[in-house]
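Margin note from the TA: students keep mixing up input and output lines. Inputs are the sequences; the output is the structure of the whole complex. Example:
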Amino acid sequence: MSPLRPRDLTAFSLAPTTVNLPPPTDSDSGSLVLDILCYTPTPTFVLDANLRVIHVSDSFRSVSSHLNRDQLLGIHVDDFCAKVTLPSNALVRGGIRAAQNTASSSMLEERLHDRIWTLRTVPIIRNDTVRCFLMEVQDTTEAHRRQLELEERSYTNETFKILVDTVKDYAIFMLDPQGYVATWNAGAQTFKGYTKSEIIGKHFSNFYSQEDRDNDKPGRELRDALRDGRCEDEGWRIRKDGSRFWANVVITPVYKDNVLLGFSKVTRDLTERKKAESTLISAYEEASKLKSEFLANMSHEIRTPMHGMLAALTLLLDTDLNPEQLELARVIEESGEVLLQVINDILDYSKLASGNFPISHDIISVSDIILSVFRTHEKCSKPNVLLQKSIDPKLPSAAEGDSLRYRQIVQNLLSNATKFTDEGYVRMQAKLQQEDDEYYTILTEVVDSGIGVPAIASGSLFTPFTQFDNSATKRYKGTGLGLSICKSLAELMGGKIGFHPNSEGKGSVFWFTAKLKKVKQLGQVELLQRKLETLSTASSTHAFDELRSLARNRRILIAEDNAINRKVMLKMLTGLGFESIDVATDGNEAVRLSTRQIPPNNSSPYDLIMLDINMPFLDGTQATKKIREAGIDVPIMAMTANALKGQAESYIAKGMTAYIAKPVDRKLLVELLLSCLQKRDGLG
Amino acid sequence: MAIPGAKDSIDEATFEQILEMDDDEDEREFSRSIVYDFFTQAESTFDKMDANLARSEKKDLKTLSELGHFLKGSSATLGLNKVKDSCEKIQNYGQKKDEKGEKEITEEEGLKKLETTIEQAKQEFHDVEKVLKKFYNDES
């Protein structure tokens, strides 16, 4: 290849925008050049150095209707511009100026009728002199629009990328479809401690604890995200250094054209919030606990002297009082009992509120409970109020539950009903609402024809410390705790409580349900014994005299391991008129003594057996079982210092007839003995 | 009938019931015998508890609980509230429960609490013993 001369080099260096036009000749190359100029699809015209038009392409017709080429050729560019639609003179002058100044081609735009036109001016230079100007006009509206769009899009992308990259309060990154980290941002680096190069390509399960990984929590989260379109989780995540932080994580699958690209993962560090939350919660719990403890302590402290007061009052009432004194003493007694009830309510409430309220699971009979409550109220019902009961025969005779608590609800609803009913009726009804393999659901209702509950108050009936009518408080005493206690109790029994107006006219219906677990059927003897349980409510002096008359010739067995208690019981019973009392010091002895057969008719040696619950060798309940198994059906009274709630019913369910707490209250003992002996007579 | 210095430690109503069983209010033979029997019983029960605690091999918490229950019964009958309450705690701790018998505690905790509570019960017993001896005019 021959070396290029400098002039040629200049010519080549201007390529491709500079065309070295050969002098016009008739040669083939000359006609080719003419063809190019005439038939180029780009609207083109050529000016000579004096700015006269020397060529116009055929295609120029598409931008300017003037096509009489002869009219255009040879005229000055200013005249040319005046004749054609495009380009404007100013644009052409601009192109020429640019070409003269830079000796290179230029592009200039102008707008006409909402379109953008571009004039490309190419100076044709020969021997450093501009020979002519090649000018092309093109509609670049579309290209222009595309360009703008592209710019806009790339600006948006860029902005998003910067945004994501620089956000420090959120870890935002992508996972590939298998869960490997694909992108990383500054927030992610801050939270998790990994730099971009350390983590890209690693699996995201690295952020989870070993336990979570063992449970395949990461995999589960991806599957959940795929299934639900999103997966959100709060939990501990692990940093690179092994420390942990409380994170909120949202995983979202990302699709493009229905193809899964991977998952976006946005993580927030909520450690501070979590800490603040738990501080708040523990502060609240502490305060609430203190409140409940305070309430419980206060009630307890008040209860002790109250008991003393009431006990002294009982003794006072037994003395010879004149009618006026008696009246006053009765007022004290009544107020004292109300006060004690209030204190007990508050004690219960504070226990329920603090969540440590024990519910026992003894064997209970709902119909017995209802009958017992009914009987108690029957005695003191108002003259114009008819007390009724209706018990579903399908009610189970035995089920697992807390008898004391069940009774408390029934009692409370019934006292409310009688309190607010001056005439008409109060009806208790219980029915088996539902039964499955494991549970009975029992519905208990108390229906009354009383003053009813205004609709406005029905919503807050079960809220603590509210009474629907403050003016009624004067007339109807109470703490406003009763129903809220009942609600908590019903809920503890797996049930609900509610109210609706009485459909039979005026009055209310209060109802509650309880889920009681099924037990296997009790034996016949036990069932028989259960029926014996009742309390006599005869007045104490009357009861005392009555017992005295019954006690003579009655044979009693006391089984008690503690000599002191034995001695006291013996003395007490002797004082009550019993003359034939045997003692046993443990359960075995009690069984041996009570199962001896006495001729001539093989009757039982005793009319009543009193058993301590905790005794060596054989305790009270085991002894009872043996005695009952021997076919002996005399009343058995349990004695215990374990005065826990619901215990009484469990003893009764185990075949005992009655129960008395230690220290034995003489008045109560008299009542119980009387009721046991009367039942025995009735049975015999 | 008020017992001087018995506030808090003796439940009046319960003790009154025992006193009412006395045939002669000056002699008070029955209640006196009961009270003195109780002194004996309490001493021997505390001795048994001490012996159990002094054992070098594994302490028998169950036995301590039973002893607590035993003494609880008689102190309750007499209305000796403080002693009774402590005995109830002994009974509960011995069953590895908290003082109210509600929550579980460990054996070590139970044993620790047993040691202090038994000491407390003894102290309470000796306090009430003084009061009762004074009541029965026995200043020895």
